[in-house]
Amino acid sequence: MTSHSVLVNRPAGRLASLNAEYHRVALGAFMVVVVAHWAEHLAQAVQVYVLGWPLPEARGVLGVPFPWLVTSEWMHYGYALLMLAGFLLLRTGFTGRARTWWNVALGIQVWHHFEHLLLLLQALTGAHLLGRPTPVSILQLAFPRMELHLFYNAVVFAPMVVAMIMHRRPRPAERSLMRCACAVQAG
Predict the structure, then answer these.
(1) Does the global pTM surpass 0.85?
(2) CB-count burial class (<10 Å; 0-12, 13-18, 19+) for 127
(3) Separation of CA 5 from chain center
(4) C-alpha angle 142/145/150, rounded to 5°?
């Protein structure tokens, strides 16, 4: 499919445009946000496990000059919501195997979003799960928060990357269904 046929055959509407001629740009912007967030989690893990910082002081790169970022449940929830919105808004641009992998990442993000919603509601109400002294997510009952969220970001990121690679290198049948020009030109 050429970029001309993408523009001529695309359905009307902003969401359709986002998943057609602007899909590649939107995916790139989404990936920048995801990688930046992922880097913050990795920086925090390095601060704890490599540099030996105590957990309260290990706040990632932006959290060092702006400590409120790490402690703000609103900020964490906002990011989880942004991720969920990105997965939903960009979903229809994917076809075939890429759509399957994107859906896997979306499903995991739905759970991750739920966990952040639970944390936010506890922070807002002061009613903490199982009488804990601070807000706690369901899986945080078994795993430490920093490691759990590092894990969440990894298990969302991995199928997202697989989806994007398959989207750029579709099979012929998948390519014929694409409305965007994200695919690498066959040649």
Answers:
(1) yes
(2) exposed
(3) 30
(4) 110
b/e 128-152 (16+ beta carbons within 10 angstroms → b): ebeeeeebbbeebeeeeebebbbeb
Q: Can you give the chain as a three-state secondary structure string?
A: CCHHHHHHHCCCCHHHHHCCCCHHHHHHHHHHHHHHHHHHHHHHHHHHHCCCCCHHHCCHHHHCCCCHHHHCHHHHHHHHHHHHHHHHHHHHHCCHHHHHHHHHHHHHHHHHHHHHHHHHHHHHHCCCHHHCCCCCCCHHHCCCHHHHHHHHHHHHHHHHHHHHHHHHCCCHHHHHHCCCCCCCCCC
> What is the average pLDDT across 112-118?
97
Q: How confident is the model at residue 185 (pLDDT cuts 50, 70, 90)?
A: confident
